[in-house]
Design a protein that fits this description.
There is one protein chain. This protein is of the alpha+beta class and 375 residues long. The strands form four sheets. Strands 6-7-5-15-16-17-14-18 form an eight-stranded mixed β-sheet. A six-stranded mixed β-sheet has the order 9-2-1-13-20-19, with helices on one face. It has a three-stranded antiparallel β-sheet with strand order 3-8-4, with no helix packed on it. A hairpin with a 5-residue loop joins strand 15 and strand 16.
Length: 375
């Protein structure tokens, strides 16, 4: 089987690595990995991601994938080193009435005892949050943390078997439903399977190819580097305000809030002063007092990071069949949180592509079974 993986981000690199290193005794495909021109690397979500890594997510499917990914990371010392994993703990603050039962069951099925529910009084004792709505609660994971997606991508790319993977550092003009890939200034190359792991470039590539991409949109993601990180706070998301962040070193960290800048070209992501002011207002509300009073962002453009990611109507990283193509798939739509699920999602995609499970029809999201990370 000849497979083209288009995209040199974390998902594309991991998928090519999975396909090229299937256990002996199975038929290994021939893989072309289209990484794009080097200039794309500085603008992709992998190079800009905060790399937060925990098991709990708001959807049960993503919780299963994240838990499976964390389980694989824990079981593999080399993988932890490649990813520069740092265990600092995680807390997700949830608004009053938000349901977590199904997601917690998905986590428990893979990592028993991983997640703990903490009420508002417990949050106040354990973490420096202020002004949380009455009835808020938190999902706490002590064995969680953060990784470097950029380092993990580099380590994986460096270990791709040369005999199995042909890396092509050129841009793709379009793909065809046959399926085939046409490089800029070149002629189409046919494959049995083409997978578009193209992140924020997906909508434009589908449009250039005359394929339906209406379910995919781009959105800007940004965060700011701070000094004066609050003591005792690891990776966190406060769903009541949108504030999120993680420590980056002794007394330093990154903090961000969601933007509403949709349909942004990957090359046009720019952090602005208004966004920083919104972030500062949220920080003053949620993290006042000791430590937080020292938070001083440097000038916009030197400490602010802006990137673009791909969002799908149904969030989650999975193979999605493109209706007008046979053997043509997208593999994106992580909606800003793909790193947590990337290991398990690429393992599941490999099984689907190699015929070990039914390939997805348009709109179907396969759910991995607990324990499948051991396969």
């Amino acid at each position: 089987m000849r497979i083209a993986v288009v995209g040199g981000g974390l998902l594309g690199a991991l998928l090519a690595w999975r396909l090229a290193t299937v256990p002996q005794g199975r038929a290994r495909p021939r893989i072309d990995l289209w990484t794009g021109s080097p200039r794309r690397r500085d603008r992709d979500a992998t190079s800009s991601s905060g790399g937060m890594f925990r098991a709990f997510e708001t959807s049960p499917r993503d919780s299963a994938l994240a838990a499976l990914s964390l389980a694989e990371l824990r079981s593999d010392a080399a993988l932890r080193d490649w990813a520069a994993f740092r265990e600092v703990g995680s807390v997700v603050v949830r608004p009053p009435g938000a349901d977590a039962d199904a997601s917690l069951r998905a986590v428990e099925a893979v990592l028993p005892g991983q997640a703990e529910l903490v009420d508002l009084a417990g949050i106040s004792r354990m973490f420096p949050f202020h002004g949380l709505p009455r009835g808020s609660y938190a999902v706490v994971e002590r064995r969680a943390g953060h990784v470097s997606p950029d380092r993990l991508r580099d380590e994986v790319l460096a270990r791709l078997p040369v005999a199995a993977v042909n890396r092509l550092a050129c841009d793709v003009a379009r793909v065809d439903a046959t399926p085939s890939v046409c490089p800029v200034g070149g002629t189409p190359i046919g494959y049995e399977v083409v997978v578009l792991a193209t992140g924020p470039w997906t909508p434009a590539l589908l449009a250039r190819s005359g394929l339906d991409g209406t379910e995919y949109r781009t959105k800007q993601i940004e965060y700011t580097r701070f000094t004066g990180w609050p003591d005792g706070l690891g990776v966190f998301v406060d769903e009541t305000s949108g504030l999120y962040g993680r420590p980056t070193g002794r007394g330093t960290g990154i903090l961000g809030v969601p933007t509403e800048r949709w349909d942004v070209r990957p090359s046009a992501a720019v952090a602005d002063q208004d966004g920083v002011e919104r972030l500062l207002d949220t920080v003053r509300t949620r993290l006042p007092g000791t430590g937080a009073s020292l938070l001083q962002p440097a000038a916009v453009g030197t400490r602010c990071v802006a990137a673009v990611d791909c969002y799908h109507d149904t969030p989650g990283v999975t193979l999605r069949a493109i209706p007008s193509g046979e053997g043509l798939f997208t593999f994106t739509g992580g909606s800003g949180g793909a790193v947590k699920t990337a290991l398990a999602a690429t393992r599941e995609a490999t099984r689907l592509l190699l015929g070990e499970a039914p390939r997805p029809s348009p709109g179907r999201l396969p759910v991995p079974a607990p324990g499948s990370w051991r396969a």
